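# nightly structure sweep
# worker-07 picked up a monomer target from the shared queue
# config: single-sequence mode, recycle default, output format = structure tokens
# input follows
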Amino acid sequence: MRFDLSRQAFRSTMMNFVKGVALFIALALCSGYMLHSRSLAGQEKQEKDEPTVSPEQLAHAKALFAEKCARCHGLDGTSKTVLGGMLGAPNFTDARWWKNDVDDKRLVQSITEGKGEMPAFGKKFTRQEIVSLVAYVRRFNKSEASTSNH
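# output follows
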């Protein structure tokens, strides 16, 4: 009978040990998931934040915009040009346009790959020029100060 009690105590101890290990693994997985989620949230926030663009880069973007974009989008971003009207170029000064989930990623993609009748500039502009153009185009958004919709 004594053998059975020690065997039962051993079994109970082992079950508690296995439960403890299982709990430890579950906690480790959960904490890893939480850390990963926070890291992804931080990356999303960084992607949504306006990229850092120097005054020189912004001036270069303004010149690029005047040279390559103003034909359709106008120097003032309103797209009130003959080509802009024909092609349906968006009015960058219209707050309603900015409310349609226009984030930096979308703007970078449109400039890089083109959109509709807009040609792709990914092979003509450097990545920094494209990021600078996005920052420049955002300056046309008069409602951004109140909504900050990156």
